[in-house]
Design goal:
The protein is α/β, with parallel strands linked by helices and 327 residues long. Helix content is 37%, strand content 19%. α6 packs across α7 and α8 crosses α9.
Length: 327
C-alpha cells in the first residue's frame, strides 16, 4: 500500500490493485503522516516567516497570500514578529530554527533594503518586498519607480503640466523610488520637476501640506500621493478650499492597501502593488530551493504595478481656478 501512496506502484503493484488502493485512500480521507515523512526526508515542511509592523501596520495581504500559497504546496508557515532591531531579529530567527523550519520568507510591510540576521546564514531565504543590498539573496519586489511613472502618465495624458508630489518620509527607500519615478516621467515629457511636499503618512499631515500647495502661486492641477492616507488628506484640503476633484484637481494614489482610496467619492485612481502575484512567486522560489536538489541561482524579480483608473482624474482645467479667498 505504501508503494502506491508514495507513487512507486508501477512495476511493483498491478494496475487494478493500485486503482483500488487509491480509491480506498480517498474514501477513508487518508493523509500521509507528516512527522514520519519529515523523519525520512530530514525536512519539516515548515517555513519561518519573519515580518514586522510598518507605518501602516503589518502587510496583511502579502502575509495572507503567502500562507495560502505555502499551504497549497504542503508547507506550514510559522510567523514571527522580528521587530525593527537586529537583536530582536536574531532572537526571532533563532527561535524559528529551534522549531526546525526548513527556510525563511522575509515579508516587509514596505520596500526596504534588508540585511539577514547572522542566525539565518546557511538556511534558504527569499525576500518579499525587500532587497539585500549586495544582491546575495533572492528577492521579489514591486517596481515602485515604474508605478510612479505610470501614475504620472495618467495625469500627463489628461494634459496636466503642473504636477506635485505628496510624499511620506523621503528617507525611506519606498518613497525615494516613488518620487524619483514621478520626476523621471516629467523629464521624459519635457516638463519641469514636480514640487515635493514631504510629511508624515497620515490624513491630517496630508491635509496640511496639500492645503499649502493649493494656496501657492503656482498651484498644481495634478497630485501624485505616495500613500492613500495622504490622498484622503488631499481630497479634504481641496474641498475645504472650494476646489472640485477632478474638475479643478486630479489625484492619483500609489496605494490602496487599506481600501481607503477606492471607497472615497470620487473613487481615486490608484497604482497598486500586485501582492498575490508577488507572494505566489516568492513562495514558489523558496519551495523550489527546499525541494529541488543542487544549487539555486540567486534571482531579483521586479513586478509591474497595474493602474486602476478611478474617477479622480480628468482633463487639466484651463484657466486654473483659484481657491476660495484668493484673487
Amino acid at each position: 500500500m505504501s508503494l502506491v501512496l508514495n507513487g512507486h506502484g508501477d512495476g511493483n503493484i498491478a494496475a487494478e490493485k493500485q486503482v483500488a488502493i487509491l480509491e480506498a485512500a480517498r474514501q477513508l480521507q487518508y493523509r500521509p503522516n507528516v512527522l514520519a515523512l519529515s523523519l525520512r526526508s530530514q525536512r519539516t515542511r515548515t517555513i519561518g516567516v519573519l515580518t514586522w509592523s510598518g507605518s501602516s501596520g503589518f502587510s496583511q495581504d502579502l502575509l495572507h497570500a503567502a500562507g495560502q500559497i505555502a499551504a497549497s504546496s504542503g508547507f506550514l508557515c510559522i510567523l514571527a514578529d522580528s521587530g525593527e532591531d537586529l537583536q530582536h531579529e536574531e532572537r526571532a530567527a533563532t527561535t524559528l530554527l529551534d522549531r526546525q523550519v526548513d527556510g525563511f520568507l522575509v515579508v516587509a510591510p514596505e520596500l526596504i533594503e534588508y540585511r539577514a540576521a547572522e542566525a539565518m546564514i546557511g538556511t534558504p531565504v527569499v525576500l518579499l518586498n525587500c532587497v539585500e543590498p549586495n544582491a546575495r539573496l533572492t528577492s521579489v519586489v514591486p517596481d515602485e519607480r515604474g508605478a510612479a511613472v505610470t501614475a504620472t502618465r495618467l495625469l500627463l495624458e489628461q494634459g496636466h503640466t503642473r504636477v506635485a508630489i505628496v510624499s511620506g518620509n523621503l528617507r525611506t527607500e519606498q518613497c525615494r523610488q516613488r518620487v524619483e519615478g514621478v520626476q523621471v516621467a516629467l523629464r521624459a515629457a519635457g516638463l519641469p520637476a514636480a514640487g515635493v511636499f514631504s510629511t508624515e503618512r497620515n490624513v491630517d499631515a496630508g491635509h496640511e501640506v496639500v492645503r499649502e500647495a493649493l494656496l501657492s502661486a503656482e498651484r498644481p492641477t495634478g497630485l501624485v500621493c505616495t500613500h492613500e492616507r495622504l490622498a484622503l488628506g488631499a481630497l479634504l484640503a481641496a474641498a475645504e478650499l472650494g476646489l472640485s476633484v477632478p474638475s479643478d484637481l486630479s489625484l492619483v494614489s500609489l496605494e490602496d492597501g487599506e481600501r481607503l482610496a477606492s471607497r472615497l467619492t470620487p473613487s481615486l485612481a490608484t497604482v497598486q502593488r500586485p501582492d498575490r502575484a508577488m507572494a505566489e512567486e516568492a513562495v514558489a522560489l523558496l519551495v523550489q530551493q527546499l525541494t529541488a536538489e543542487g544549487e539555486h541561482d540567486v534571482r531579483q524579480l521586479s513586478f509591474t504595478c497595474p493602474a486602476s483608473v478611478g474617477a479622480s482624474v480628468a482633463p487639466a482645467p484651463w484657466p486654473v481656478k483659484a481657491p476660495l479667498g484668493m484673487p
